[in-house]
Amino acid sequence: ACIAAGFSLVWGVLNVINTLFALVSALTVTLSMSWKLTLASLSTLPLLLLVTRYFSRQIFTRQKDYQDSLGMMSEMVQSSIAGMRVVKSFSLEESELARFEKQNRHYFDKTLALARLRGGMGPIMSAITTVGILVVFWYGGHLMLKGELSAGGFLAFYRALARLTWPLIALGFL
């Protein structure tokens, strides 16, 4: 267990270093092409980081609640099976069934809460990302019309900007 924890820590540190390196290298490339477009492209970043952080915390909490509920249900089933003779001899089948149904409903509610949160995360993150892309295309087009950026420069910028996606998402989960 100690080795696994050490491995997880090393893996986590390497992941953070890799994320920071990818972030710095992508920012260096985009800033060298157009600092104005880089700033415009990062305009949705604060909102994206806040939303990612919110969902990360909520998923952690709801995942824990879900697993606790599953553990309680498993424990209940195990104790019911172990005490089956006692339940039958005292005719407690109905009360055991009611207890199980109550615990099963609790488990279902926790599962549904987690699924709803996960289901809402994708569209919200996509909407924020789409607004960011629209800003890049609008302002990038503006810079191209003014002659401050060529069409090839814009395409190269957009490709370099795409390299920022994963590091920024990963930073939100830290």
Describe the protein in words.
The relative contact order is 0.16. This protein starts with a helix and ends with a helix. The mean pLDDT is 88. The protein is built from seven helices and no strands. Helix 1 (2-33) packs across helix 2 (35-41), helix 2 (35-41) runs antiparallel to helix 5 and helix 3 runs antiparallel to helix 5 (93-145). By secondary structure, it is an all-alpha fold.
Query: Percent range for helical residues?
Result: over 70%
Which spans have pLDDT < 50 for at least 5 consecutive residues? Answer: none
Structural class: mainly alpha
N-to-C SSE string, H for helix and E for strand: HHHHHHH
What distance lies between the first and last C-alpha atoms, to the nearest angstrom? 23 Å
Radius of gyration: 25 Å
What is shown here, in short?
This protein is mostly helical and 174 residues long. It is built from seven helices and no strands. The two termini are 23 Å apart.
Q: Tags for this entry?
A:
174 residues; mainly alpha; 7 helices
Secondary-structure topology with pairs:
Blueprint (H helix, E strand, L loop, with lengths): L1 H32 L1 H7 L3 H38 L1 H6 L3 H53 L5 H12 L2 H8 L2
